[in-house]
């Protein structure tokens, strides 16, 4: 009789523990920016929307919400949430690797993304501003080159960088 009560007591205690288990919650916005290898203008209007959809689906599958995305001909901007269980480097890899394979399947067999990336934190109060900035990419790049744009981000975020290693 004692063993049954002890076992039942443990089962009840385990059920109670499951109901009051603490949570780890976060909402971290990341503005990811990276270019095609050597800045080659691979991304065309013909694949842009499908590429956006593909990346949104890929990130959704790992628990990341995409607020805004725009693939220029030679680089991409993605504003998304960082899942609680992965690093920024893993997030970028989960964008680059499958999307690169997908682009190659679209007939661009020489395609690849650059090795590096820029990742910038965005406060929740600035999300709308960054969304607008990304939506405005076609107009923005009529005046500003990608290299100047990225230099501006590095300066704004006070990130030291060496030009010899940024553009690959």
Question: Would you write up a description of this structure?
Answer:
With 168 residues, this protein is of the alpha+beta class. It has one domain (29-166): Transposase IS200-like (Alpha-Beta Plaits, 2-Layer Sandwich), CATH 3.30.70.1290. The chain has helices at residues 2-19, 45-61, 88-105, 127-135, 137-140, 146-156, 163-166, and strands spanning 29-35, 66-71, 75-81, 118-122. It has a four-stranded antiparallel β-sheet, with helices on both faces. A hairpin with a 3-residue loop joins strand 2 (66-71) and strand 3 (75-81). The longest helix has 18 residues, at 2-19. The relative contact order is 0.17. The mean pLDDT is 91.
**CATH structural class:** Alpha Beta
E-strand count: 4
Distance between the termini: 72 Å
Q: Please, how many domains?
A: 1
* Backbone structural class: alpha+beta
Helix content: 40-55%
Characterize the biggest β-sheet: 4 strands, antiparallel
Proportion of residues in extended strands? 5-15%
| Overall average residue pLDDT | 91
- Strand order of the main beta sheet, please? 2-3-1-4
The CATH superfamily label reads Transposase IS200-like
CATH topology: Alpha-Beta Plaits
Number of helices: 7
C-alpha-based Rg, rounded: 21 Å
So what's the overall shape? Answer: globular
Unreliable stretches = none
CATH A-level architecture: 2-Layer Sandwich
The secondary-structure element order is HEHEEHEHHHH
